[in-house]
């Protein structure tokens, strides 16, 4: 049996340096399929998808709202060729009703332990329209290594420089942030994977550079410390979301290979200023994630926030406008208030204003979004700031003997500078 596994393309944010990371969801899903199934994986962001009837079943994995319309187009073309199509992934869960119109079946929830049933149903001609396991999460011990062998590694780099592999050490999140759908998708429980399985998978990844994609690492201090302690011998270098604001945890994270973190910059307080400094004091870079357009923000507030981030020595910054994704508190509030004026899912990318802000017009918020990007990167481009981060990464890799010599040539070629 042959499955065509497709990850639809989407348009990247304007103004951002464009690079592609190997997607995580599809290869985690692929690992749940029976071993006798042949998988033809296509990431449409880096590969051309030729719609042919050379498979038995088509599986479309969607992570972002900006992928769903393209996913539907792909499904319609395959179904016109009499191929059965099943959808899964985060955005299938967020857009389930609409996706059903383009699918023979949709899968909602986590796939571990479920796929044997679905494949059997398909073989017997009894594929159900919906498989909903969102309230029945599988035992966390069932998660195995992702099928990273499906990637064409040469396609995932930035101008020839090896980027990062994605990995997760836990699922779920005990927080429920205003713009976030995680509590809907996976509940409010923090579910760490068994540490021995985490370390074994990490050790088997043939890339020294990782992105730990857990919603946040700051959910359980003792777990965090144990994870970092066990990771140290692997000499990996990694990016993550927030780390616990604790000197002992930060010290251990640095020893374990923390390269830089994504840290929300939500106000101009001394706490945020010191938070960034504490990361830097431990040799950990910071990419600030800044959300614009909250009801608490006036135009002056946004401008003060932009001025503030210029003062606190961020290594990188990523600006987004508040986006009301389905099944979030944001969506519920703004839809109830009649403030969402654009329901084109291609525009739900974090860079286009699709709602009426409280204290300024949508057009003005869009202008401030552009102003934020241009202002932060005015003196030093994203390329320059990325080079600095890669430089520190290469220095650390050389110190512990994990630096790959081909990267020196590629970094010079890409950025016009040498790593000494």
3D structure, described in words:
- The chain has 420 residues and is of the alpha/beta class.
- It contains 15 helices and 16 strands.
- The chain has helices spanning 25-30, 68-80, 90-94, 96-100, 115-123, 182-186, 195-203, 221-231, 247-256, 270-281, 299-311, 329-336, 362-376, 382-399, 405-415; strands at 2-7, 38-43, 57-61, 84-88, 105-108, 130-132, 157-158, 161-162, 165-167, 170-171, 191-192, 209-212, 237-240, 258-264, 285-292, 316-321.
- The strands form four sheets. It has a six-stranded parallel sheet with strand order 2-1-3-4-5-6. The protein has a six-stranded parallel sheet with strand order 9-12-13-14-15-16. Strands 7-8 form a two-stranded antiparallel ribbon.
- α8 (221-231) runs parallel beside α9 and α14 (382-399) packs antiparallel against α15 (405-415).
């Amino acid at each position: 049996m042959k499955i065509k596994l497709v990850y639809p393309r989407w348009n990247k944010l304007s103004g951002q340096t464009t690079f592609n990371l190997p997607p995580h969801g599809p290869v985690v899903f692929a690992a749940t399929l029976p071993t006798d199934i042949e998988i033809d994986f296509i990431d449409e962001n880096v590969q051309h998808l030729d719609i042919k009837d050379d498979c038995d079943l088509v599986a479309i994995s969607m992570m972002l709202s900006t992928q769903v319309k393209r996913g539907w187009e792909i499904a319609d073309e395959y179904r016109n060729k009499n191929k059965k199509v099943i959808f899964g992934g985060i955005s299938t869960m967020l857009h389930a009703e609409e996706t059903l119109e383009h699918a023979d079946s949709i899968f909602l929830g986590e796939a571990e332990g479920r796929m044997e049933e679905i494949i059997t149903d398909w073989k017997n001609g009894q594929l159900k329209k919906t498989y909903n396991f969102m309230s029945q999460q599988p035992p966390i011990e069932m998660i195995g290594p992702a099928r990273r062998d499906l990637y064409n590694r040469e396609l995932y780099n930035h101008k020839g420089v090896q980027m990062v592999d994605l990995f997760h050490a836990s699922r779920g999140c005990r927080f429920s942030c205003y713009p976030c759908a995680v509590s809907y998708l996976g509940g409010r429980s923090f579910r760490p994977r068994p540490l021995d399985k985490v370390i074994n998978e990490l050790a088997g990844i043939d890339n020294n550079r990782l992105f730990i994609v857990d919603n946040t690492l700051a959910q359980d201090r003792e777990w965090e410390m144990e994870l970092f302690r066990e990771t140290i011998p692997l000499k990996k270098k990694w990016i993550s979301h927030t780390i616990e604001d604790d000197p002992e945890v930060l010290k251990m994270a640095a020893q374990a290979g923390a390269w830089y973190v994504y840290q929300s910059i939500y106000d101009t307080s001394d706490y945020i200023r010191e938070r960034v400094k504490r990361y830097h004091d431990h040799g950990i870079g910071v990419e600030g994630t800044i959300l614009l357009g909250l009801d608490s923000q006036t135009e002056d507030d946004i401008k003060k926030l932009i001025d503030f981030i210029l003062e606190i020595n961020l290594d990188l910054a990523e600006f987004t406008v508040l986006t009301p994704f389905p099944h979030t508190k944001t969506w519920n509030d703004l839809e109830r208030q009649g403030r969402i004026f654009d329901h084109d899912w291609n525009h739900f990318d974090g860079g286009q204003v699709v709602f009426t802000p409280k204290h300024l017009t949508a057009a003005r918020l869009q202008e401030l979004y552009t102003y934020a990007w241009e202002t932060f990167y005015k003196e030093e481009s994203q390329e320059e700031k990325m080079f600095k981060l890669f430089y520190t990464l290469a220095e650390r890799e050389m110190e512990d003997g994990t630096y790959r010599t081909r990267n020196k040539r590629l970094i010079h070629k890409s950025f016009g500078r040498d790593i000494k």
